[in-house]
């Protein structure tokens, strides 16, 4: 057996382990193979303590000396650069221990697979009498069968048997047959299979031919337990037959030939000649088989004739029959043909035997005619007694309901609810119907989804509750109060859905229509900016509507809110719904200290309710970013990790939305007048993308349009995703010369987003991915600061984007350590740590109505909560297609559970990231190679103090972000435009009815003079045009005091784009000879006069005005520029990649300062150079170019 296990090695061993449920990593396979541990016998006997230590010594001291450099990474993974420091990490040790246990389990199974001893494998099933056959079959023996083939045969047999048993025997559907399979020595298999019936302990032998298993006998044995045609003989009959047979045995002895042929009715049976009919006489053994429980169907049919003969024996003819059979035995051979013929008669056919059995069974049954007399008496009684007749008819109708000839169709759950409700209220008068909670929830769901008009149609045609009933039900639900934190409601939300009490909070603001309205539920004026208290919290109830003068004073002293600020909680469960904690109006004039104090208050209040706030997220707002830096970045780096300038464990971690970070990097790349030098030879420029688009490449290769590189479209995430795709960066490196820095910048854009948003990445891969670009940005930033003529404002990414990336990188490690120490590995879901829950909430609100006020936004949020709660209550009764689709999508994209790494594993991943970043910097000449060995870039984000949080930033967002002034607003010229909007609102319970047309062409106000006026009533008293007091609605007064109404554009692209549109892209032109053009375009190759009078060749990347009051005024967004400047022009400059022309070869020029060169130094446009043997060749000479000077 040890030899057999020793043969199981290499791929066979890994396959067995995989079938047993264990998956071994590739590097561990190679290590075990190199140390000769990759076989079942040795692996099952491995000592994980001593043996792993010897393997580790071998890896540290020996293996890396004999391995080629190209193979080292496969064996050493993270230790590839320092193999002498190799050691088994915690996960590897646990994995080896699990592998040893699986190997032992497989070894035990392997020992039990052979039902015979190891020495009898070759002679299995061979008896001494069969020695000749064994000798003759020696030539048929083939090579020994491997264990994998035995396992495959075992799996096939068990699958075949279990499928058959489950399909044919419902009582055994929970049974699983496990077989023992071994090789029979003749290149085939033999197995032992137990019977799946509980009371049966028999084990059947199953053989196999060249193609399949022979399971027919095994199936027949199982069928014998469930045969419905078994018949039994009473004990008295059995005793009588045995007595008669014993008497006959003393008179006649059966010959040996009769005994041998007793099972064959066509060979030598004794018969009795009774006229022309011959009746066979059965032997004793056949009668014993007749009463056996295991007799099959054929025996049962034959035994029916024995029963028939037995009936004759009871009439006294049995002894005569035995005597006649004994006398006819002497003539058995002479009458063989006649006896064979008699069994072919129709009398002995199966149908006739079945018929005789039915006739015999019916002898003791009652006949129909026996009931005629009873029926006659009942008929007489029923005709004489009318009451008895009615009772009989009623009883028969109840006991025997009329059955439909057609099958009743199965109704859906929703139709069953409606049918039950219709039956319950069918006999009730109008207005007296009663509805259960399920029907009310269904009605509320239809009211919210379909609106008032659809629900009125449903009420008139289906048994739905009335509109007033649904409105009362909705009105009883808790309102959303402006500025009130719904912490208790959040806890109920989590508990109802069985979600963990750990959330991630995100904050963001969205633009709302500046409309002030009255909310009768709280008696408050909604739409003004709420003041903040000492904790940075909005003060609720700041604008009570007590009187007309008070309301009027609010309008004089306050301004309407331009934005609605939301805090949204996201549970740490993938695809779990989010919850709006608070919403209130703001004027965006709060400070970072307000944010910090609000966060501390929320953490405390949430903790009192048992909810743990693990982190906060935002979209790059400078005040929230300040607060994040204050809570993340420390003055003194970690004593062990100099590159990590934060506390490893914090009360909460802070994350900036990675999608917004990616769009910031995109905007910086596309912004005109900005020069992003990366070393002395390379520039990060969108001109490389323009050249890639304008080249004669199929769009299917790069999937880009000129609209994707529109600098005015700042928040187009899909354009950013297409720009930084791997296909684009690969094409840039392959097709566009000198685009190495741009391709690297696009790689950074992609991976900074993927480090948080990708679901498939492991924690160490995420850490390595984002820290690689953190180190690269630190090196690049340090180079810009040290290079004269460059500054961070004009020649580096924005400080906002850099700080966001630094904060995210530190938060990634903090999240890993936090969840690892709390043993909540499954809660590490980085793609949920963003401000996307806020964005998702805003998208949902805009899908219902694009332009809404603050009050309408609160009502829409309550509608969302009501819909979610209704779906939760009805999910077991109603099918929601989108909900089911979301569940299926969630199951299909379910992420693999991870084991969070230890500190030393994090350190190794960061070290690998540092090495990659240094290699990037060396290739771009940002760093010299001789300086790179010990170079450690440190964090360059300045820690903030409490005093810094109190400083208000006038510029909330940097110039690449979307400002309020860029949002296109449509001002309503006529206040009547708001009337249809109110009429179309279907979700608000308190539908405003303020406007009433009293005469053609004029607007009046409806008065209510007979109402009770209090401070909380929805009416106030004002003076009309004649000075008389009149009661009007408070909502009407708000409308009258409001000077105008602002609506938001329905087009989101217009809301996030700048007002001026970019110029259309112009296809780059191709010239075959030098020529002087009136216009030059981005990606053109042109000759310019340098400062020393020589000819310089430049590839145009972008244009900018040479003068302007600020950088924004210097931006030139067109892709082409005139060579001859018009009068009073500010002058244009070209940003180029510069080359020197030496003997028709272009050599890159090292530039001390990369900047815009005046276009008036233009000489001519030259043909596009060709790449020949890694060199750029120009088809014209310097002398040819100088002719155009």
TrEMBL record:
Start and end residues of each stretch annotated as Disordered: 109-147, 246-335
Ranges of Basic and acidic residues composition bias in the record: 301-315
Polar residues bias locations: 318-335
Protein name per UniProt: Halomucin
